[in-house]
Amino acid sequence: MVAVSSPGSLRPLHPLHAILLAFPLPLFMGALLSDLAYRASFHIQWANFSSWLIAGGLVGGGFALLWALINLFRRGPARKGRLITYFVVLLVMWGLGFVNALVHAKDAWATMPEGLILSAITTLLALAAAWIGYSGFQGEAR
């Protein structure tokens, strides 16, 4: 049996876009776990781990955001709703991740509890972006 794709069917992300989208969730989740470890132990190295993990999540998320922006402008006005939602979730994730990086740039004692809260929110936003991105888009061409 041969699968036939209709113009309105869901299509997956471009493979390179999927690779870029794979970075933010585990890196932001690692930062959240590092913040939880710092809250439990107050070893400064956990705060340093969080800072580096957030920076990595911002790099991968920034490239995924750029790809989503390009896809948004490449599409016609019809059926853009899911692409706009995906772009906005990525944009908010990246923006809060940047604020989180600034919070983590402070002294380790000063990062709590804001850093932990921001890490939790960016992790949830990264999960939402990955869910939307990997579930496919209608009418997206490779």
Automatic annotation (TrEMBL):
<feature type="domain" description="DUF2231">
    <location>
        <begin position="14"/>
        <end position="133"/>
    </location>
</feature>
<feature type="transmembrane region" description="Helical">
    <location>
        <begin position="52"/>
        <end position="72"/>
    </location>
</feature>
<keyword id="KW-1133">Transmembrane helix</keyword>
<keyword id="KW-0472">Membrane</keyword>
<feature type="transmembrane region" description="Helical">
    <location>
        <begin position="84"/>
        <end position="103"/>
    </location>
</feature>
<keyword id="KW-0812">Transmembrane</keyword>
<feature type="transmembrane region" description="Helical">
    <location>
        <begin position="115"/>
        <end position="137"/>
    </location>
</feature>
<protein>
    <submittedName>
        <fullName>Uncharacterized membrane protein</fullName>
    </submittedName>
</protein>
<dbReference type="InterPro" id="IPR019251">
    <property type="entry name" value="DUF2231_TM"/>
</dbReference>
<feature type="transmembrane region" description="Helical">
    <location>
        <begin position="12"/>
        <end position="32"/>
    </location>
</feature>
<dbReference type="InterPro" id="IPR016923">
    <property type="entry name" value="UCP029509"/>
</dbReference>
<dbReference type="Pfam" id="PF09990">
    <property type="entry name" value="DUF2231"/>
</dbReference>
